[in-house]
Amino acid sequence: MFLSRFEFNAVRRGARELLASPQRLHAAVLAAFPADQSRANDQGRVLWRLDQQPHQTLLYLVSPHPPDLTHLVEAAGRPATQSWESRDYAPMLERLTTGQHWAFRLTANPVTTRRKDGTATRSQRFGHVTVAQQTEWLLSRAGKHGFGVVEGRSKEPDVAVRGRRTLRFDRRGRTVTLATALFEGTLEVTDPSLLRQALTHGIGPAKSYGCGLLTLARAS
Amino acid sequence: MSVLLLRLAGPLQSWGTSSRFTRRNTDRAPSKSGVIGLLAAAEGRARNESIDDLTMLRIGVRIDQPGQVERDFQTARPVDGSAPLPLSYRFYLADAVFLVAVEGAHDLLERLASALRTPVFPLYLGRRSCPPAGPVLLGMREGTAGELLRETPWQASGWFRRRHSDATVSLETVTDCPPGTPGSVLVRDEPVSFDPRHRQYEWRSVLRAPVTVGNPDHRVHDPMELLGGDG
Could you tell me which SMART domains the record lists for this protein (chain A) (predicted)? Predict the structure, then answer.
């Protein structure tokens, strides 16, 4: 597996077009791989996430094969001075052991699946929209993904919803609506193999549209 | 020298040093008379008792969270409905947090610390209607007021700290200094007596200076850093 990072040059028209639509960005990410390498395999799948800060827009990418982001650099980056970084993810994945603490960041699409009403014949996904619902969604799933959220200074789970957005974009003539939440906090590893699975296969729905990529960093 | 560290935080605070009559202003930082009054109240001193030992203390204030000035417009009337009292304005600081360092002799500060833990009179932040949120006493340390204002971690509330994206933050301090120190200013804030029939304040010389402290909530999320080397 590989973890890659690319910095957008947000003033370029190409960057704006891509950043405006998760559908187009999804296509651009998949274009980084030949057809037989873009599919999920038993190691993992292609996952990506946009980290937008006031003066920096970063694309993180996890993939079974190393990506070729030349087209992104040319259309939306700084082709004369900067390319992208790509590193082998395996050493990090092997280092995970029970009890470790890591700072985490995750953009997810928290949803609940249910029938719309009594007469509905099939169930459908409904986005969680409040901070409380979204946090509860993550906490209730953490164990299944091999981690627990540690307790912070005031004995509350150390997780914060740093950003909530409702994305609306066109997909083949129909509008897709996604409620996303950016989670940040500190986790404790409870099951390394489940966490490895979460890091390489993603968490929750809408993985093609920039949701579900969990990254770990040194805990402060 | 020993230092008593206080954290003054609450929904409302009001620290007047100069205003009289119908317009009661607040300063942007706790006044020495307010802090001395708080310590005297903790010890249970009556208004007309001597506070000479407390005025010898050296006081420094750090503005950890500046808060907002709020105006309260009062239209009070006597109970019998006769002639209304003058209209008055009272000013408050909302949502502010201050770190106060009280420097002095060890024995006196130890006595004050235990009084703050079990105060005789209720403590308030400048005005009777402004109770503190949480314990006022942070602890007792060795050093000078200036050192401790530089070294003590940032006391602002969590929501305020998280708004700052930088690793450090610059905070203003107001510290007692000998009269005539370059850059100092005089304020009429040295309490001599709190006797309600004869309140007295002397001039006090203070120095304002910024200090830089770390932001404990600063986090940079860099997952690539763990993978080392260039791949």
Answer: CRISPR_assoc
What does DSSP say about strands B23-24 and B88-104: parallel, antiparallel, or unpaired? Answer: parallel
What's the topology of domain A2-87? Answer: Alpha-Beta Plaits (3.30.70)
In a mutational test of the B interface, the residue from A56, A87, A154, A155 whose CB has the highest number of chain B CBs within 10 Å is A87
Q: Taking the domains of chain A in order of start, what are their residue ranges?
A: 2-87, 96-218
How is domain B2-214 classified at the CATH fold level? Alpha-Beta Plaits (3.30.70)
From the CB of residue A102, how many other CB atoms can be counted at a distance below 10 Å? 22
Report field, pTM of the whole predicted structure over 0.80: no
Closest CA to B4 of B96, B119, B100, B120: B100
Q: Do A5 and B165 touch (CB under 8 A)?
A: no
Comparing CA positions, the residue from B169, B151, B154 lying closest to residue B212 is: B169
pLDDT per residue, tens digit, chain B (231 aa), is 899 999 999 999 999 887 778 888 999 999 999 999 999 999 999 999 999 999 999 999 999 999 999 999 988 888 887 887 888 999 999 999 999 999 999 999 999 999 999 999 999 999 999 999 999 999 999 999 999 999 999 999 988 988 887 888 999 999 999 888 898 988 888 888 888 888 888 889 999 999 999 888 777 788 888 887 554
How far B157 CA lies from chain A's nearest CA (Å)?
12
In this prediction, the answer to ipTM > 0.90 reads no
Q: Which residues of B touch A2 (CB under 8 A)?
A: 231
Residue B190 Cα, gap to closest chain A Cα (Å): 38
